[in-house]
Specification:
Elements lengths: L1 E3 L12 H10 L4 E3 L10 H34 L12 H12 L4 H8 L3 H10 L6
Parallel strand pairs: 1-2
Helix pairs in contact: 3-4, 4-5
Family: Belongs to the site-specific recombinase resolvase family.
Pfam family, one: HTH_7
GO molecular function, one term: DNA strand exchange activity
Length: 132
């Protein structure tokens, strides 16, 4: 018998709840929830309630996922994108490219620009020098 605090932490994200319960049952694992007293997979009613709770838990996950996708699509349609603005402004990019053309190291460029080495590396890899 395995005791759980709540069903939400039992389920694998994309696994069918009925298949999950059957797999656990086949392995001799029964579940009893400490917060949902009627969920006890040793009884037929408990197995049924486990399935019902699983369906609603999946519905909640799917609803959150759909709302997030819709919100991101709406923001993109309005020209807004997520994430932090890049520290590499067009001026810094131009200076980094000039310095690299003059054979400065990435460490030297990052130090002069006051940014991290990874920011410089990323910009330089996206914009290879012509003639190299």
């Amino acid at each position: 018998m395995t005791n759980i605090v709540g069903y939400a932490r039992v389920s694998k994200r994309d696994q069918n709840p009925a298949a999950q319960e059957a797999e656990l049952h086949d392995r001799g694992v029964n579940i009893k929830s400490l917060t949902e007293p009627d969920i006890d997979t040793t009884t037929p009613m408990g197995r049924a309630l486990f399935g019902i709770v699983a369906v609603f838990a999946q519905l909640r996950v799917d609803t959150i996922r759909d709302n997030t996708k819709r919100g991101l699509a709406h923001a993109r349609a309005e020209g807004r994108v997520g994430g932090r603005p890049s520290v590499m402004t067009p001026e810094r990019i131009e200076q980094a490219l000039r310095m690299r053309a003059d054979n400065h190291s990435i460490v030297q460029i990052a130090k002069v620009l006051g940014v991290g080495k990874s920011s410089v590396s990323r910009v330089l890899s996206e914009r290879p020098l012509s003639g190299r």
